[in-house]
Design a protein that fits this description.
Largest sheet: 3 strands, antiparallel
Helix content: over 70%
CATH architecture of the domain at 3-173: Alpha Horseshoe
Order of helices and strands: HHHHHHHHHHHHHHHHHHHEEE
Distance between the termini: 31 Å
CATH superfamily of the domain at 3-173: Tetratricopeptide repeat domain
Shape: elongated
CATH topology of the domain at 3-173: Serine Threonine Protein Phosphatase 5, Tetratricopeptide repeat
Number of helices: 19
Number of strands: 3
Structural class: mainly alpha
Strand order of the largest sheet: 2-1-3
Strand content: under 5%
Length: 390
């Protein structure tokens, strides 16, 4: 956990402590007791302001132990222990709260939810599933419990249950889960393809399209099935549809789409589509593809002119690397040596630069992931555009 998030969490704890002290004041606590707690509270706050969170935690623990009625503080501390990796400590604290008979039902439910998250962090998914299932059955914090169960089934890759609980979350929350459901059907489709059952894979993908008609993943997988079956025209239509609906996915579909054009013998359609994408997509992928077609049709000099003009319009390491590679082909002597140095430099930059980035958490990756490995959000990892590589 970052220091910033830690400080924010502790500030929330300090706010709870401040509320507690204010409440104690209104019910006329003794001056000595209030003074002692107030001193501890302000010392803890001072540690926060001086970025000494560990010392602050110890003082807030003193407040929690000073009066067992500080439920909010204890729940917040348990949450903090979990985020710091002290899961066993969090479990003990939350289990202690759940076992108490002198707290309100609302506080006990809050402690149960935190305990379920403790179990999830500890990998005790069966315990967490039982706890959240009981909360759903009791109709207590149903939406929160359902979301936790959905997370558990995704982690276990139980896609039928994931679909069921995504629908239940959508029902109680009113939000759309169609994108999630489409991804779960796609996961089952990919599993069927790995098992050699293309018919079942197609059925799963049609269910994905039914859930989300604009699912780029379903469209791309259907295109792969059509291509494997020799139906290049259908594959072209599917790939083009994905790119036109969401141009961010153009770098993902362009390579197989160009193969489809080649197999189908439709060179003119390829150039027309790339010309369209040059207007709509501001990354480098259509530039590189068009440069290769120009080189094939009109020669290296025309491709050099085209690339040079595009590098000025939309700077990119990948475009510069392609321009240098074209220049190397017709160069000798000192000019070739200089271009070789530039090629090595740009290749090094390309190898270090992430080709993909999550637009939710910023996670960078060399390859594409449909679910971010860091924040676990679906469909958030996109090709990097602009001055990087895509």
């Amino acid at each position: 956990m970052t220091d910033t998030l830690l400080l924010l969490t502790l500030l929330a704890i300090s706010a709870a402590c401040g509320w507690y002290l204010g409440r104690q004041n209104t019910i006329r606590s003794t001056g000595k007791r209030l003074s002692r707690l107030s001193t501890t509270y302000f010392r803890g706050l001072n540690y926060l302001l001086n970025e000494q969170p560990d010392k602050a935690i110890e003082l807030f623990l003193q407040i929690a132990h000073a009066d067992r009625d500080t439920i909010e503080t204890q729940i917040a501390l348990g949450h903090l222990f979990r985020t710091r990796g002290e899961v066993e400590r969090a479990i003990r604290l939350h289990q202690g709260l759940v076992s108490r008979t002198d707290i309100s039902d609302a506080d006990k439910i809050a402690a149960l939810l935190e305990l379920g998250e403790d179990y999830m962090r500890a990998g005790l998914l069966d315990r967490a599933e039982t706890l959240f299932t009981d909360l759903v059955r009791l109709d207590e914090q149903q939406e929160t419990a359902l979301r936790h169960l959905l997370a558990i089934y995704q982690f276990e890759r139980d896609w039928p249950k994931s679909i069921e609980f995504a629908r239940r979350v959508a029902q109680v929350s009113g939000e759309s889960c169609s994108n999630l459901i489409a991804h779960f059907h796609c996961e089952m489709a990919e599993q069927a393809r790995r098992n050699g059952d293309s018919g079942l894979a197609r059925d799963r993908l049609m269910q994905a399209v039914e859930a989300d008609p604009n699912s780029p993943r379903a469209g791309m997988l259907l295109a792969q099935i059509e291509f494997a079956g020799g139906n290049h025209a259908a594959a072209i239509r599917l790939y083009e549809r994905v790119a036109r609906h969401d141009t961010d996915y153009l770098p993902e579909v362009l390579a197989p789409l160009l193969v489809c054009y080649q197999q189908h013998g439709d060179h003119a359609r390829a150039r027309a589509f790339l010309a369209e994408m040059l207007e709509r997509h501001h990354g480098v992928a259509p530039v590189l593809a068009m440069a290769r077609l120009i080189e094939h049709d009109d020669g290296r000099a025309a491709a050099l002119d085209f690339l040079a003009s595009k590098v000025r319009e939309r700077p990119s390491i990948a475009a510069q690397a392609a321009l240098i590679a074209l220049g190397q082909q017709g160069s000798e002597g000192p000019a070739r040596a200089l271009l070789d140095v530039l090629a090595d430099s740009t290749d090094g930059l390309l190898k270090r630069a992430p080709g993909y980035r999550c637009n939710r958490c910023g996670f960078g990756a060399r390859g594409h992931h449909w679910q971010c490995p860091s924040c676990r959000v679906w469909g958030s990892v996109m090709p990097v555009q602009g001055d990087a590589v895509k």
